[in-house]
Amino acid sequence: MIVLNSLQDKGAGFGVSTNKVTFIDNKFKVFPMELKSKEEVANDILIKIIAHYEA
Predict the structure, then answer these.
(1) pLDDT tens-digit profile of 1-18?
(2) Residue 20's CB: how many other CB atoms inside 10 A?
(3) Concatenated DSSP letters of 1-37
(4) Which backbone phi and psi does 41 adopt, to 5 degrees?
(5) Which of 27, 32, 37, 44 lies deepest, with the highest CB count within 10 Å?
């Protein structure tokens, strides 16, 4: 899994409280996410990791 953190989108990146990430799985499927708090993004990452190991 790759997690891309956008630095191009308004309100995302460093120095702000939100991020906009895109997930890419091991089959190269792309899952763009909406702008979320950093805590919500961290939760999304954990959910993806857990789902991967439970599969």
Answers:
(1) 999 998 889 988 888 999
(2) 20
(3) -EEEEPSSSTT-STTSSEE-EEEE-TT--EEE---EE
(4) -65, -45
(5) 44
Look-up of token digits 């979320």? 36
Q: How far apart are CA 55 and CA 46, in angstroms?
A: 14
Token digits for 53? 């190991």
Which residues is 32 bridged to in the sheet? 22
Give the per-residue pLDDT at 39: 97
Find out whether 23 and 30 touch, Cβ atoms under 8 Å.
yes
Name the amino acid, one letter, at 9: D
Mean pLDDT, rounded, for 20-45: 95
Confidence (pTM)? 0.83
